[in-house]
Amino acid sequence: MKKIKLKNIIPLLLISFTGSFLIQCDKEETVLIEPNQRAIFTSEMDFDNRVNVNQDIDFADASAGVVSRTWTFPDNAVDIDGSDNNQTSSNKIVKAFFNQPGTYNVTLNQTFKGDVLANGQSTGSNVADTTIVVNVLSEVNINLRANILNDDGTLGNPLVIADNAENEVIASKKVRFSYTVDGDPDIFDWTFNGASPDTFDGSDVDVDVTYRSLGVHDLKFIARRDRPAGGDTISIKNLIKVVPSTEPVNLISVNELDGKIGLEFSRDMDPNSATASQFSVTLENNGATIPVNITNIDVDSNFPNILVLTLNETVFRDDEVTVSYTPGTLATTDRVNADAIPQTPVGFDRLENILTSILDHSFENSTNINDEWPDNMWGGMWAKYNRNVSSMRAKTGTNSLLVEYEPNGGMIINSGPATIPTEQGQTYELGFWIYVESLGNSDPAQFLPEIRFFADPPFQELGIVFFNDTFPTGQWLYQSLFFTANNTEDAKLLIRGFNEFNPEPLKFFIDDLTLRKVNLRP
């Protein structure tokens, strides 16, 4: 009896494993066994077979064991390179040009020498059919329209979209720009001169902007895609003419701005009308009052609706600062005087929230909390909790994270696949809004219930909030935790809850997590 033994296997670059291999027999008899295995490619397969009209796409059949093949293309939509037959081809490689936008099926019928293999198993047939879906995109083409936006949110008069139209808009009024677009672009870039915002890169089909700067302004809108490459640009000269308003100017926000105080108004302010003596500023840090005075008043170079107060002291994140204004000479560029500003805390909302691009910090788009904020697997009392995304309460938007510590329980969860970048020596503020619904009945003589934050790895405590019996309930409160990173690391964010000495549940909502780089007063 002659023995046959496997000597080696030479794999080919095919879609599924099956390679040609040689069998070496005792008598040096070599038998070549060729598989019947499909291997079909297109030049745009990594890009969902998306092509522009009249752009070529290659179809390739690298299958082993093929006796015959027939490519079939849609009627009246394709030009096959080098062929008078634009519907079928038997070539291994076919270059085709689609001349009409739409979604098309290209089929390949193959006959093999033997049964076709799929995932290493015989299909029981020597015939295989494959369908390839090709998406042919039209040129990118934008259709733009615009309307005055009434104060009640309804659409007002349409604007003329043309160069030198100079559509009149009253200062501080809004315009809604809307568009439709062909060609399936996925990158959008707006530039609004004289308005807030001055740029926007979202895909929203309705974009509202507030015109604040007197004068005539241009508009630019780009919609494009990288692959297949295509785009359209609308650039309109002198589209909007902002005219003076007789309506009051509104104070929108008061925030720290590069160590100074920025007062954002609803339209551009005249810095020459501002008088320092008409403002009052207080600054405290850790309970100590620090004397301050205003050394300069100007407007932001990029946003002239922001009045900038420079002090003799830099404003740090851990300072408590207030500002007020007594009516006097302060006016807009269209000569409307500003109203009184009562004593108003200076916020820090302009600092970048690092978490925005890392995780769903406001829980608006969370779909699987067990994946996004999984249990950290400590077990024991640390597993005695419940948490889920809830629409019962929200600081902003519609959702928040509902957490309930069980009686004598606790919690430990982590940020799942998301990690927070920290830099050694950099100080950060970890902030969140919390709404406590019930505190339970903890023993004040024991360790109090708490929520505590960590970064891991390496394990570092970031801050803690205790739930004593005077902690406010039934309202949203902002909690701020400062820490300095011990390492430069991409670490998971851990949230630990403690309720061991509370015989009742403790229930609260968390919303709008923030992580910001900050400077604290030396």
Question: Could you please describe the fold and organization of this structure?
Answer:
By secondary structure, this protein is an all-beta fold. It has 4 domains: 98 residues, Immunoglobulins (Immunoglobulin-like), CATH 2.60.40; 99 residues, Immunoglobulin-like, CATH 2.60.40.10; 95 residues, Immunoglobulin-like (Sandwich); 164 residues, Jelly Rolls, CATH 2.60.120. Helix content is 1%, strand content 50%. It is built from 1 helix and 42 strands. The strands form 10 sheets. A 5-stranded mixed β-sheet has the order 5-14-11-7-9, with no helix packed on it. The chain has a 5-stranded antiparallel β-sheet with strand order 16-15-18-22-20, with no helix packed on it. Strand 29 and strand 30 form a beta hairpin. The longest helix has 4 residues. The N terminus is likely disordered.
Q: Round the mean pLDDT to the nearest integer and report it.
A: 91
Strand order of the largest sheet: 5-14-11-7-9
The strand count comes to: 42
Q: Which runs of at least 5 residues are low in confidence (pLDDT < 50)?
A: 1-27
Using the coordinates above, name the CATH class of the largest domain: Mainly Beta
Main sheet: strands, sense, barrel = 5 strands, mixed
Q: Radius of gyration in whole Å, from Cα?
A: 33 Å
Q: What is the number of helical segments per DSSP (H or I, 4+ residues)? A: 1
Euclidean distance between termini CA atoms: 91 Å
The rough form would be described as: flat
CATH architecture tag of the largest domain: Sandwich
The share of residues in helices is under 10%
Q: SS-based structural class?
A: mainly beta
Using the coordinates shown, work out and report the CATH topology of the largest domain.
Jelly Rolls
